[in-house]
Q: What sequence folds into this?
């Protein structure tokens, strides 16, 4: 943390007093800390306390004029290497998700390109409210990171999730954030995501349940960490991350193969998170197949195995595959890793709740070439995207 610039936002929740401990800890670790508080936060803890702890003036209003900063929100937005909001109210989460910038803190959060970490704290009913959860999902998809609240007895007397994460956990998340700041700069990464569609006739296709969320989370994390990211995406209903080098939209496995193989020689890392169809209809009917009294028989042939082809022609690239299985997960994944000449495989057990298609979380095993296996517990796909990138960095 020595000499790192950390902006700490504080919003109007009971846990605001805990931000004092955070600021004090960060200062003791050698960080430069600047604090921005919402007006409501000042009802809970005084700017003078935070000013004394941080050693810097504290901004509370859009039109305050501290001597040191010029156009304050832009200056702070640029100065920050990491931005953390402790505690984060439901209100701030909602405003950021909607792009509302009606005070100093929300305006600065829109203006910064530093990684944003939010540590929510609120009553359990508020935290589990569908609109708060939807706002958090939206922000996660945009690359905002959450330091998840703990479950426990809250100030209001309720017991449940919504308690501010421990200060130790917040400090650990910030230390991790600094390890990840631009650690993929100068690295060319191609990521595939989503399902493919194998046309049967002009109106029908064979596909699968992949939502693309894992691949998009990886792309989001890789962009945030400074990578030059090409995202090759099958048809999904997700917003692509801002800052991609290139977005290539494809439909079929053949399209995806072409898009990937052309770009392969220029890449340092290729992560195949797409759920590519193994089969396609042998014959693509030019006209819509009409309903008849007879059963419809369609013959399927194998698609090109993109990952295996990449494995065969690998030169300098690190190649990462995904395995989604409903049985014998580790054995199948290990076999796939060897057979397809991969460096790392991320294995999803589709039978576990919270893992696999469609959901925002995943439970995986990571297996590398040396045979090392890591069991990764349930975590958000956003967090898993970062963890997978951490492990790719550690590959020899
Ligand atoms: C005593 C008290 C405690 C509060 N605690 C919380 C809280 O922990 N989390 C939260 O989201 N809102 C909490 N609120 C409500 C927020 O203060 C309110 O939504 C406010 O508009 C937030 O403003 P801000 O996000 O600009 O700081 C609390 C309100 C009061 C009066």
A:
């Amino acid at each position: 943390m020595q000499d790192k610039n950390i902006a700490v936002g504080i919003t109007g929740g009971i846990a605001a007093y805990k931000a004092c401990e955070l600021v004090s800890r960060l200062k003791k670790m050698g960080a430069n800390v600047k604090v921005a508080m919402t007006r409501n936060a000042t009802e809970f803890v005084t700017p003078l306390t935070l000013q004394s702890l941080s050693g810097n003036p504290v901004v509370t209003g859009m039109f305050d004029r501290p001597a040191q900063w010029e156009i304050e929100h832009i200056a702070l937005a640029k100065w920050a290497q990491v931005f953390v909001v402790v505690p984060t109210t439901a209100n701030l989460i909602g405003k950021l998700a909607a792009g509302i910038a009606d005070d100093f803190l929300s305006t600065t959060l829109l203006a910064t390109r530093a990684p944003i970490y939010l540590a929510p704290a609120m009553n359990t009913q508020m935290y589990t409210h569908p609109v708060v959860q939807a706002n958090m999902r939206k922000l996660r998809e945009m690359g905002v990171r959450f330091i998840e609240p703990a479950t426990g007895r809250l100030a209001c007397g309720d017991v449940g999730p919504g308690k501010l994460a421990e200060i130790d956990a917040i400090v650990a998340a910030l230390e991790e954030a600094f390890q990840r700041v631009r650690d993929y700069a100068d690295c060319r990464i191609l990521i595939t995501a989503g399902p493919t569609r194998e046309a049967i006739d002009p109106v029908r296709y064979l596909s699968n349940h992949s939502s693309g969320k894992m691949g998009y989370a990886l792309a989001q994390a890789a962009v945030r960490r400074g990578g030059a990211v090409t995202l090759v995406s099958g048809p999904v209903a997700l917003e692509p991350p801002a800052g991609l080098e290139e977005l290539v939209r494809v439909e079929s496995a053949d399209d995806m193969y072409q898009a990937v193989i052309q770009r392969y020689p220029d890449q340092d890392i290729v992560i195949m998170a797409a759920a590519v169809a193994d089969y396609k209809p042998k014959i693509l009917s030019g006209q819509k197949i009409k309903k008849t009294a007879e059963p419809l028989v369609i013959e399927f042939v194998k698609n090109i195995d993109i990952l295996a082809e990449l494995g065969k022609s690998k030169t300098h690239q690190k190649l990462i595959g995904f395995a989604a299985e409903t049985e014998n997960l580790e054995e199948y994944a290990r076999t796939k890793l060897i057979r397809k000449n991969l460096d790392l495989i991320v294995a999803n057990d589709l039978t576990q709740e919270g893992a696999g298609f469609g959901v925002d979380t995943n439970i995986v095993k990571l297996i590398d070439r040396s045979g090392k296996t890591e069991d990764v517990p349930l975590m958000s796909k956003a967090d898993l995207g970062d963890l997978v990138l951490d492990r790719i960095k550690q590959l020899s």
In short: The first helix runs from residue 16 to 28. The first strand starts at residue 5 and ends at 10.
